[in-house]
Amino acid sequence: MKIAVVGATGMVGQVMLKVLEERNFPVTELIPVASEKSVGKKVSFKGSEFEIVSMQTAIDMKPQIAIFSAGGTTSLEFAPKFAEAGTTVIDNSSAWRMEPDKKLVVPEINAGVLTNSDKIIANPNCSTIQLVMVLHPLNTKYDLKRVIVSTYQSVTGTGKNAVDQLNAEIVGNEDVAKVYPYEIFKNALPQCDVFSDDDYTKEELKLMKEPKKIMDDDTFNLTATAVRVPVQGGHSESVNIEFENEFDLDEVKKILAETPGVVVMDDVKNNIYPMPLYSEGKDEVFVGRIRRDLSQPKTLNLWIVADNLRKGAATNAVQIAEYLVANQLV
Ligand code: 2RA
User: For substrate, which residues are the binding ones (predicted)?
Assistant: First the structure.
């Protein structure tokens, strides 16, 4: 399988290469793509060095699959060019996610919507992926009525420059480019991405829209507050879920424990619950603090943690590629 990784030098791109290697994806030829200034540099993959090529060179090489993590502008310009050349694009930006004719896929939930005519496939937002991995099985069983999400997001979601800002602030080095409007160390910013006219951030709007498309269900309400915190291992989410139907708490935990890709960590008497420090580098979605909302019936509180660079981005994209190959869709 000839596969291009577009954005190969970025944080997610680097994790994509790692995940492709770890999962032994059938790569016969790797085509790393990055900005013009990186052309000619090398990336490592499976013990070999691969030269970074330009976008046009990669298009001309006609890879079967191109996995993009290069931002929406680049994807809007170049994903269609790859597709026209016969390549199937899996894009990690928000560019195509809500396009009616583009599929938005978490393989454990809706890979079945994919066909061989899908030439640009959207990878959902990281905070969406970990959320729907938990919402979907509970929705199937108990029927969602309303979901309230508060996120606590890793600086890795913003990128290397944000990680550099945090690490510099930790050691008191103020001579570093500020990615955020304020210090992030010893702070919490109720802003992930820019604000829209309705005073929600783009991140919050993604969380409010994407789950309904992935789950093919717009019968429930969802609101979100997305917060950036000085963490590097993954995103955390406090979720309040009101169902149409009553539930049994032990059954909820059993359903989640039996959901592929989800791990229940819930033993508060022994201080067992998910934390980003311990989810970093893992592909599972960890859920804990599962308890009834004592303020109203048919309502549940829980806590979800996942590595936003892995299941939240790279691993989910590679799983989509695996599904395409396994089902002869490329
Ligand atoms: C963030 N989910 O965390 C967004 C994009 N990765 O900033």
Answer: 153, 228
